[in-house]
Amino acid sequence: MATLWFCLVAIMLAGYVVLDGFDLGAGIVQFFVAETAQEKSRVLKTIKGVWDGNEVWLLAAGGTIFFAFPVLYASAFSGFYLALMIVLWLLILRGISIEFRNSSSNPLWQPLWDTGFAVASAMLAVVFGVALGNVVRGVPLDSDGYFFLPLWTNLVPGKPAGIIDWYTLLVGAASLLALAMHGSLWVVIKTEGTLQERTRSFAAKCWVGSVVFTLLTSIVSFFIQPNLIKQFQSHPWGVVFPVFALVGLMGAYMLSSRRKDVGAFLASGLYLVGMLTSAAFGVFPNTLPSNPTPDLSLTVYNSAASQYGLIIGLYWFIPGMALAMTYSFIVYRHFAGKTG
Amino acid sequence: MNSALGIDRLQFAFTITFHYIFPPLTIGLALLIVVLKTLALWKRDESYNRAARFWARIFSINFAMGVVTGIPMEFQFGTNWAAFSKTAGGVIGQTLAMEGVFTFFLESSFLGLFLYGEKRLGPILHWGSAFLLFLGSWLSGFFIIATNAWMQHPVGYVTGSNGQIALDSFTRLLLNPWLFWQYWHNMIAAVVLASFVMAGLGAFYVLAKKSAEYGAIFVRVGVIAGVASTLLMIFPTGDGQGRMVAQNQPVTLAAFEGLFETTKGAPIVFVGQPDMDQLRLDNPIEVPKVLSLLTYKRWNAEVKGLKEFPRNTWPDNIPLLYYSYHIMVGLGTIMVAIMALSAFFLWRGRLRTTPALLWILMLSIPLPYIATMAGWLTAELGRQPWLIYGIMRTMHGASPRVSAGNGVFSLLGFMGIYMLLGVLFLFVVAREIARGPEIAEGPNSSAPENYGAPARGENQ
Q: How far apart are CA B276 and CA B445, in angstroms?
């Protein structure tokens, strides 16, 4: 049962990254590609009706971890305290920048919020990557299952550990490039004309960067977290997850160059899901690996809630998420098509 | 307050208090917008639709503020209250996760459709999106209150050998008797707040002779909703909530009333200052026997005083609790009077021509904000020294590894950011009020590109 919830949490997080990932990517596109205030407004409009719903996936994923893995929630949220506070502030900045951008006609107003939107989006993309890097690398859990990490120490993944080191930064950079690509492919679907063309070539550049950093991160990860190799050796079928990522990444390029824009966007979504599920698979059965003492790791067995709670959870979670998907379907259909 | 625990408490208190400026208006307005949309359909009067569009703009600004200040609330359970989350996550995680799954998706999806989709949805479906928005915000309140009600009055749980609390009965969690009264008392208070805001802003438009026709609609809808909700707030919901406290947290009731000695025929105190050194109430202005009557329906019933209970179970900030409770009740009573008087004048058709009363309505807008804030303080301070009543003390709930220094960092960060947010909110709302309801265009006209909150009407 706990393993099932581990999978559901992974799906929720993957859903968040695929959906809000393109909002964050759009923020990056808006900064690098859109030149005039009018173009920036067009980029923003591509996510205007949907970004809030996408962000909800993060909250729902957080809530799911809270009730299914309370020990993990308590440990990870307090241990990554500083990083999470910064995430909160960036989420506030992004939300306000999107919602209040058009609230004044003063010529200084819009550039201010456009910059806020871009900075918050780019930094969130990096911080989420850094967070993933931390989960793969592991954290110095104590015997009570808690830890606390400073933002950085000596930038080396070892003792004394920090949230930011060269490895987690590498994952952060990969995340930034991947989400920039993902967001560009979204904006390409939703726009026309020269803005679309420039975004398409920006996506191609991000794609090259993503390939380089994906390979680099993947190789380094096997050295940083030995559990990855063990998992893939003992359960070779798990290789499908990295294969998904690879197919998605290749597909994104091929479909984009043939102007199959929707296909390219979905392929990049597949790539993101492949990367995340690979990481989740590689970490399993840990939910938060301990580094340097693997015996103290939080696992699906020692961090889950009671059996009764987990079963009850299924009764409302499945219909609840089915409803949520229905709303999303209605909203995306309503806002389908190019934005003016 | 310079310990890590003190910082954690201060940060939670600060962020929840700031957050709670916004949800009551969202919850109350969601209902009033459905009322306006219904009137538009029923009376086939486009001015109600325009009124709804104006309030939808205020709603969306308020909603955005509620969202961005709400996310830190969920996170802080884990970041600052890790020991509590670890112990109780198996129970309260259920209701919090249900809020995410059942209401956040609903609200965020249909807010977008409601704000930008009027033209394409048509009147019936647009009414539907307003209704779903109402449903989402009221359900959201339900899950949050369910969480708080469990902390006030834990039910349906078992404590495991590892000290963690596990859910034992899902139905008892959702049918918690405390939850019923607390939920309706909160929701009704939210309607009171939205009614005062609507009537008060309407009074402003009438008095300023600007969009006066819309102002009159706002006053009418606000006063009718206001008189109904202020009465329901006191009876039965406030009364029911009070009896819950009397039955389950008698020491809290004694602290509410500043009652130190156990008394037969206990008086109700209007004004007075709790003296925590002498353990008595200074300068009391009171009416004898009324507290006994209200609590136990008998004039001479015995009400237990604080001295009856061990000192380590007393709420740890009795003066603040006492004042919060008295401010809530006092303002509640004043609000009933204002709305009853306004409703009487409205019924006689003299409200629009009675500037004094319109002034009172306009200047009363802050009252329900203060009262709802005081209400939350009453609930939360009243639960002290417990985090989960009778099970876990607040001092045992904080994150063991988060130091005071790191706590101060985030607390100061929140203070700075929220100050900016507050200024921004007032600026943006003031702008909407200045633009007024008249330029709330019909669904077929388009808003100028560079002007106005979320571009209305024209969606793509």
A: 64
Say whether pLDDT at A340 is over 70. no
Q: Domain total for chain B? A: 1
Name the more confident of B444 and A153.
Answer: A153
The pTM of this model reads 0.93
- Nearest by CB to B98, which of A69, A102, A316? A316
Q: Which pLDDT belongs to residue A336? A: 84
- Please check whether residue A222 touches B, CB under 8 A: no
In a domain, A294, yes or no: yes
Nearest to A59 among B60, B74, B116 (CB): B74
Q: Do A146 and B399 touch (CB under 8 A)?
A: yes
DSSP codes joined into one string, B349-380:
T-STT-HHHHHHHHHTTHHHHHHHHHHHHHHH
Residue A14 in tokens: 């993957």
- Is there a contact between B226 and B346 (Cβ–Cβ < 8 Å)? no
Angstroms from A321 CA to nearest CA on chain B: 6
**Mean of all residue pLDDT scores within chain A:** 94
By percentage, how much of chain A surpasses pLDDT 90? 89
Can you give the pLDDT at residue B446? 39
Please tell me the distance in Å from A85's CA to the nearest CA on chain B: 7
> In chain B, which residue's Cα lies nearest the Cα of A85?
B410
C-beta atoms of A60 and B401 within 8 A: no
β-bridge mates for residue B275, sequence order:
B280
A172 pLDDT more than 50: yes
B457 found inside a domain: no
The structural domain count of chain A equals 1
- A76, A312, A321 member nearest B170 (Cβ): A312
User: Between chains, do B86 and A41 touch, taking CB under 8 Å as contact?
Assistant: no
Rounded CA separation B258/B323 (Å): 9
Distance CA B5, CA B393 (A): 12
The range of the structural domain enclosing residue A39 comes to 2-334
User: Would you call B386 helix, strand, or coil by DSSP?
Assistant: strand
The answer to whether A67 contacts B94, with C-beta atoms less than 8 Å apart, is yes
Does residue A340 fall inside a structural domain? Answer: no
**B454 in any annotated domain:** no
Amino acid at B4: A
- Percent of chain A scored above 70 by pLDDT? 100
pLDDT digits (tens, 9 = 90+) for A208-236: 999 999 999 999 999 998 889 999 999 99
Q: Would residue B161 count as lying in a domain? A: yes
Residues 97-126 of B with CB under 8 A from A: 97-102, 104-106, 108-113, 116-117, 120
Contacts of B96 in chain A (CB under 8 A): 63, 66-67
Is B446 within the bounds of a domain? no
Asked whether residue A339 is domain-assigned, the answer is no
**Range of the structural domain that residue B237 is part of:** 4-439
Give the count of beta carbons closer than 10 Å to the beta carbon of residue B218.
Answer: 28
The residue ranges of chain B whose pLDDT is under 50 are 443-460
Rounded CA gap, B203 and B340, in Å?
A: 16
End-to-end alpha-carbon separation of chain B, Å? 52
Question: pLDDT at residue A1 above 70?
Answer: yes
